[in-house]
Specification:
By secondary structure, the protein is mainly alpha-helical. Helices cover 54% and strands 5% of the residues. It holds the Pfam family ABC_tran.
């Protein structure tokens, strides 16, 4: 193990002037002057030995993790040293850049300083802030690590996001603490503060829930005041720009007392100009507030690089330079490397350690070039004056005295528990308001399904006189319970979409887990009450349940309790799974167990001994018992039956339900208890679980790439050679350039009006520069090294000249801002229209608008570059590759398929061989019904997140006309087929033999065929639901409605002969009904076994025909109809992605 030590200086803001605007800061400069040298003492941070275990690649990584979890595999681990003997000091009030090639250890170093390294990593060394070790104060509240990704709640505005952060971090409290400390210090040093600054500090220290002054100040410093009331936005909803969103991420942290920032690759996904603007904003923040900032960038532009004061250069885990930025070239010149002309310093620094690029920078003519490894450069640095200066600064004793007590956080949270709860409650209420369409839609959906239910089980058709009608009442009650449970399924995607933001804020100690979960739970109570009330009012009396007001309100209370339990269950599952696909899968698994062992599908006396525990822990068991007792103990069910006992008691006894009324209150208590348990579990999962990790890079085990050693792996080199005019490559030609394989064309446009913001379009040799409003401020030649454009702007009176070595693009954007126009008192559009350049462009447009002689009009034979078949092949290759690299989807659903097959097989063990009674037959039908519903629903739910992500990519690729909609949709459908076949084999074979259906090869094949078609149409339905809705949340809500209706009119809860004539049409368009018709007919349609039931005596075949309306001859038509459903759902999806575009960007 190699020892790694790093030292850093961190001094947090402790002056009033640092929080003031620039002019006020100057007025308060006297306070800076009076601070003693001891007040500015540096802080030492020693760093760590870091060892990172290797990963395995995406698919193998997930498989290995799964096997390791079940103790079936003990993976081999290799040691990788990321940081090796690194030391350094970061000064407050100075911008420090962390530079290095990918894999050099930048992120690890930043995480180490922020104390956010993975606990599995091995480390050595000490990290101190102000001379105080990390275990002596709360690092998470003192510093902030800002990652490459920007996780925000898109429905909140920029101001709301920062206001919430300010409330959680106690921005007002922090300013009050500073005010207290500064008042004491001013009295000691006899300082008289500026009245303006004093007033500013006092106003900022006043608590407020909205429009906090600290928020306004942060918005101004970061340049976010122009978009303060704009939604942050998401992938599907237009919001602020990428650069603004990055500044929002930073603003969340600095709006509170944190003035130590570790920013990791913030330029990811941003152009150089936006990165420059962000770094410039951070420069203002650091210098005005004397903050401590360490920022890593991969390839900063020269003008961005120049903004930094200090530089840390990392390579292969070594610090090879640490000191002032302006002296870095001097150091490298001292060891023989020089910067060539027109080469960016940042690019030079990242290439000078590369074995491939280093030689070109060797400038020592007196010595032959020999590769200098990073470890040698690091040693040369430690021996240099810069390295000795760093070492000497680390040797200065630092005991933490001389710094204000408020500079380091001493408590976990900035404000009281009540204030944190209030902040989270206010935000949750605001988000519910922003999602009101979703909740209104869900409520309307409950009312519509309730209306359908009451018209299916209409009281005029049901008479509580015998056991047959009693079963229909019980079916309706059971459907109501399951529908309320299915409604809770929509909590899965909503909760998971919030988790990334929660984890970020939890890890930065904005609030504890309970402060997040409790308001969410509390605010779901009124909504559960609304849903229960709507369902009860719509269904109870039209169906004809017990006409008793007391029993009606008990029915409503039970509906409320089951909904609260379901909401808690699925939120708990979301917090455990932490992934859309995994959560949907486990959510379906939870429903499967609860559903099967709830006492209706499998009566208590039919539950196998090994599943008795499952029966008693199923929440639906208690819901079914409570709702059964509430209905069937009413006086109208106390009539004596011809079979003995009362009709109500007979119905309850058939399903193993209790006849004692106290079971109602037991059921209510258990359901509410489960709700509490699930919400406590949700809170604990939020508190102790972390986001799912990603696969790490593979470290080859058969070779090591060390300095001076050769690797055993082959090296692949790709050389691009320009073609000659005849299309053949010239092997030894040194001529630069290439021959275009097409005829160049000129495109002109004139006086075009289009009301969309367009920043700029860069064209080789030409430039079109526009400002807000679509107005052109320059259009013309760039010239060599952009000289024509530079000359044009520099000729305008008042425009500052471009500094030497500056990026012309950045300079051009800086001098053409609205602020510059206002300062110069001119309009660049007017200037351009009156210029010679404009007249030259106009003349060029007129000339090029006339086709040259001998040319043909520009015409494309097809809209797309490839024909439809080629597009389909390419899309297929892409989709198969994506699916192979998505084990969290495919491996998880196959795993769920196996688990579900084992659960269903063990619950219905040997049930297929029993056909002597009506109850035996209903149990076999229940097995087939359960298999169809739950495997299908799981497929539809788990595919939706995948398609939702793919749709975002599709919108972008379709806009560039890469392919047509139909080839893409066809590939999306085809890629599912192999996985559906594998699912069918795994599930079908397992359940067929465990349930012990009649062994017949033809019946076995038909069972597999119906399973495959069921999985296919459910999967295509899930895909279609995404295509027809703007969001995954709405697709989940809409899908749950269809699942409920398909379940209701499938022919199981209410047989076809009992369905009212006005709803028979829906029975025939329900794919689940055709699945049950086909699979039951194929398995039982030819059975001649005699059975005796309530009001029936005859063969199984006759029972299916008379009681259920199934005929053995319907197997073929059922297959044809299910195939038609598959084609219908797929076709609707194909049309929807062609016609609909929900991306509002």
């Amino acid at each position: 193990m190699r020892r790694v030590e790093v030292v850093q200086v961190v001094a947090l803001n402790n002056t009033r002037a640092k929080h003031a605007c620039t002019d006020a800061a100057r007025q308060h400069a006297q306070f800076h002057d009076c601070r003693s040298r001891r007040d500015r003492k540096r802080d030492m941070i020693s760093w760590i030995d870091v060892v990172l275990a290797r990963g395995e690649g995406i698919f193998l990584f997930h498989m290995q993790s799964l096997l390791t979890f079940f103790w079936l595999l003990r993976p081999k681990r290799n040691t990788l040293t990321i940081l090796d003997n690194v030391s350094g000091a970061i000064k407050p009030g100075r911008m420090t850049l962390l530079l290095g090639p990918p894999g050099s250890g930048k992120t690890t170093l930043l995480l180490a300083l922020a104390d956010k390294l993975d606990s599995s990593l091995k480390r050595n060394g000490d990290v101190t802030y102000n001379g105080i070790k990390l275990d002596k104060f709360v690092v998470q509240r003192t510093s902030a690590y800002i990652s490459q990704t920007d996780n925000h709640i898109g429905e909140l505005t920029v101001r709301e996001t920062l206001d919430f952060a300010a409330r959680c971090q106690g921005a007002s409290n922090s300013w009050a603490e500073y005010l207290k400390d500064l008042t004491k210090l001013e009295k000691e040093k006899n300082i008289h503060p500026s009245p303006e600054i004093d007033a500013f500090m006092k106003v900022a220290s006043v608590k407020g829930s909205k429009n906090n002054l600290a928020t306004d100040y942060t918005l101004k410093v970061l340049g976010l005041d122009v978009c303060a009331d704009t939604m942050v936005g998401s992938d599907m909803v237009r919001g602020v720009s990428g650069g603004q969103k990055k500044r929002v991420t930073t603003g969340e942290m600095i709006v509170g007392p944190r003035k130590t920032l570790f920013m990791d690759e913030i330029s990811t996904g941003l152009d150089s100009s936006t990165t420059y603007q962000i770094v410039k904003c951070m420069l203002n923040f650091v210098h005005q507030m004397e903050a401590t900032l360490l920022m890593s960038l991969l390839q900063p532009a020269p003008e961005t690089f120049e903004l930094f004061d200090d530089l840390i250069l990392l390579s292969e885990g070594h610090i090879i330079y640490h000191g002032p930025r302006k002296n870095v070239l001097e150091f490298f010149e001292s060891i023989g490397f020089s910067l060539p002309p027109r080469k960016g310093v940042a690019d030079f620094l990242q290439e000078v350690t590369s074995r491939k690029d280093q030689e070109q920078y060797w400038s020592n003519k007196h010595k032959p070039y020999v590769f200098v490894p990073s470890s040698t450069i690091a040693e040369r640095f430690r021996e240099s004056e810069y390295g000795k200066f760093v070492k000497s600064s680390l040797l200065v004793p630092n005991d933490g005295r001389g710094f204000l007590h408020s500079s380091l956080a001493r408590t976990n949270y900035a404000v009281s528990k009540l204030d944190l709860l209030s902040a989270c409650y206010s935000r949750e209420l605001l988000l519910i308001s922003r999602h009101r369409f979703l909740y209104i839609f869900k409520t309307c959906q409950v009312a519509i399904i309730g209306f359908i239910t009451c018209t299916v089980f209409l009281r005029t058709r049901l008479h509580p006189v015998d056991e047959q009608n009693g079963r229909l009442y019980l079916s309706c009650l059971f459907f109501g319970l399951t529908h309320m449970m299915f409604n809770g399924l929509a909590e899965l995607p909503i909760t998971i979409s919030r988790l990334p933001v929660f984890y970020k804020q939890r890890d930065n100690l904005f609030y504890p887990a309970w402060a997040f979960s409790f308001p969410s739970w509390l605010l779901r109570i009124p909504y559960s009450l609304i849903e229960a009330s709507v369902w009860s009012c719509v269904v109870y009396y039209p169906v004809g349940f017990a006409p008793n007001v007391r029993r009606f309100f008990r029915f409503m209370l039970l509906s409320f309790s089951i909904h609260q339990m379901a909401v808690g269950l699925f939120r708990f599952m979301a917090s455990i799974a932490r992934d859309f696909i995994v959560a949907n899968t486990f959510g379906a698994a939870a429903l499967l167990v609860v559903f099967l062992l709830g006492g209706f599908i499998v009566p208590k006396n039919e539950v196998k001994p090994w599943w008795t525990w499952g029966y008693w822990i199923s929440p639906l068991t208690y819901g079914q018992r409570a709702i059964g007792v509430n209905e069937f103990t009413d006086t109208r069910w106390r009539k004596m039956s011809v079979y003995g006992n009362t009709v109500g008691d007979n119905i309850l006894h058939v399903y193993g339900l209790s006849t004692q009324e106290y079971w109602y209150w037991i059921g209510i208590g258990v359901l509410l208890g489960y709700s509490i348990i699930f919400n406590i579990g949700f809170t604990l999962a939020l508190a102790f679980l972390n986001p799912l990790g990603k696969a790490q890079a593979v470290i080859p085990t058969d070779s090591e790439d060390k300095e001076g050693s050769k690797t055993t792996n082959p090296t692949v080199q790709i050389k691009i050679v320009p073609e000659t005019s005849n299309g053949m490559a010239e092997g030894n030609s040194h001529k630069r350039g290439m021959t275009l394989p097409f005829q160049p064309l000129a495109m002109t446009f004139h006086n075009v009006n289009y009301f969309v913001d367009m920043p700029k379009v860069d064209i080789p040799y030409l430039l079109l520069l526009m400002k807000r409003g679509g107005l052109v401020i320059y259009g013309g030649s760039l010239g060599v090294n952009s000289q024509d454009m530079i000359d044009y702007f520099q000729r305008i009176n008042g425009v500052k000249p471009m500094p030497d070595g500056y990026n012309p693009a950045t300079w051009m954007l800086e001098i053409s801002t609205p602020a510059c126009e206002e300062a110069l008192g001119l309009d660049f559009t007017t200037v351009y229209r009156n210029s010679d350049t404009f007249r030259e462009v106009e003349a060029l447009i007129q000339r090029l608008s006339v086709p040259a002689s001998g040319t043909e009009p520009l015409r494309f034979v097809t809209q797309f570059p490839q024909d439809k078949l080629t597009q389909f092949k390419i899309c297929c290759q892409k989709q198969f590759l994506v699916y192979w690299r998505s084990p969290q989807y495919n491996v998880v659903r196959l795993f769920f398929t196996i688990i579900s097959a084992l659960i269903i097989g063990s619950i219905f063990w040997n049930a297929g061989s029993k056909r002597n009674t009506e109850q035996d037959l209903l149990l076999v039908m229940g097995a087939l019904y359960s298999a169809c519903i739950f495997i299908g629903v799981n497929n539809a739910s788990s595919v939706q997140p995948v398609i939702s992500i793919e749709r975002t990519v599709y919108y972008r690729e379709r806009a560039s006309r890469m392919y047509a909609s139909l080839p893409y949709a066809a590939a999306q459908g085809l890629v599912e087929i192999p996985y559906l076949i594998l699912q069918t084999i795994l599930f079908g074979v397992t359940t067929f033999f465990m349930i012990h259906y009649e062994w017949n090869f033809g019946k076995f094949i038909l069972y597999l065929v119906f399973m495959f078609l069921t999985l296919a149409y459910f999967t295509f339905y899930g895909i279609m639901a995404i295509g027809l809705t703007p969001s995954q949340h709405l697709a989940a809500v809409l899908s749950s409605a269809f699942y409920s209706l398909w379940n209701l009119l499938s022919g199981f809860l209410i047989p076809k002969p009992k369905i009212p004539g006005w709803w028979l049409w829906f029975y025939y368009i329900s794919p689940v009904a055709w699945t049950l018709r086909g699979v039951i007919s194929s398995q039982l349609g030819d059975v001649e076994t005699m059975i005796i039931g309530v009001g029936f005596q005859g063969t199984v075949k006759e029972y299916l025909k008379e009681s259920l309306g199934y005929e053995s001859s319907m197997t073929g038509p059922s297959i044809a109809v299910l195939l038609a459903f598959c084609l219908l759902f797929f076709s609707v999806y194909a049309v929807s992605i062609k016609v609909l575009n929900f991306q509002k960007r």
